[in-house]
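Forwarding the complex inputs:
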Amino acid sequence: MVAALTRRFGDLDIAEEAAAEAFATAVRRWPADGVPPNPGGWLTTTAVRKAIDRIRRESKRDDKHKEAQLVYDDDPPEPVGAIDDDRLRLIFTCCHPALAMQTRVALTLRMVGGLTVPEIARAYLVADTAMERRITRAKAKIKAARIPYRVPSAEDLPTRVSGVLAVLFLMFNEGYMATGPDTDPVRHDLTAEAIRLTRLIRALLPDDGEVAGLLALMLLTEARRTARVSAGGELVSLDEQDRGEWDAALIAEGHRLVRERLAAAAGGVAPGRYQILAAINAVHTSAPNTRDTEWSQVVALYDQLVRLDPSPVVALNQAIAVAELHGPEEGLAAVDRLEDQLAGYHAYYAARADLLRRLGRGQQSRAAYDKAIELAGNTAETAYLTRRRDQLR
Amino acid sequence: MRYLVSVIDDKTDPGSTDRQPAISAFNERLIAGGYWVFAGGLADTDAATVVDNRGEQAMFSDGPFLESKEYLAGVWVWEVPDLDVALELAAEASKVCDRKIEVRPFQ
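Prediction (whole assembly, two chains):
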């Protein structure tokens, strides 16, 4: 709805506030008046009316005819890219190269993903006020510098897409591991939206390996979604998941995409990070259980990924895979090497706690669990970590 | 939409000085495309004078308002539909001038 309003009014602020006002009106009225026969249509109509009211209030002095155009010109036809999709246009605007990378992600999560400012601030480990300022500044720049609201032309598309993929991956991750005490541990709305948008990008660029890789990665992750949180709202680790609950159709589609990319890699096209991550997930989703997983392949793929992306978070996941292949002792040594870079990151302490537990070092494990619980933002993960800690002897 | 397009030079690492023919050809294309509003190269910052008449009497000081390694060497004003067009032209301008370019919208 925000996307459609933005297209119509060419202003993110007006669109966002009009949508919010429409929802607020619905909350006030529907309980008394009853829900209208077409709730979506009612909300859109109300939001459009609110937006026009606001424009009237703000621009009494200028552009009378522009206002009239907004009232009478229903959905003016305009040339767009290959796929006419408001959300796609919104995402390309939010991911514009004239904005700083962090700003792009924040803006997309806010405008396309619908996350609140505190949720985004948390994902970025910055204060709410700083995030609010960043988003406000970005919206002001889009307006003042006239960043266009459209899908880039075919020739500009490939260079613009990598930035969009980074944003979609972060959106998916926020959905898959949602932050905040009052948030559902898994936000299917966000994961589904990230997948939907990635599919749209794939339709635009069917031959792009990283687009296919990201889509495969999301599908293979999404396939495990329902098995990942227990009925009691606790995170279920990979080795404890009921693999029969995994979504076979999503896995089949993900595997198809991974095979397509493996064929391309065999033909000499070097895979990017999403394709490697997808391949790692394909190894997991091909195995009947954790014990029979081909960990040597997982470790080899992580080695490849580390060469491409030497970030400490990738190294942490590599260390976890090393623990499965060569034992917890070796895994722990690799994890400990990351202490300086990952102090303050909950997954570092969670990985450490698990390895110390398997090594029978209960006291140290408990301390690491305490730290992980303190830093974890996901309710299901906190519940899981707490149980594991309390089971320590 | 109008944009001020500034050409930024660097005193310690100046761009090449043989760009004028290429810039003239680029200007012709800007005019043909309907983008050209105004253009001009600037004299050295040493030639600048800052005037401040906010107090009791006008003060004149010799030199630019800000001494810096990087400075404004010339400007364009372009009339283009949106930032994408402006940035695409600015990328060309940077090559043509062998200098950095800042694109800033007018209000």
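Chain A has 21 helices and no strands.
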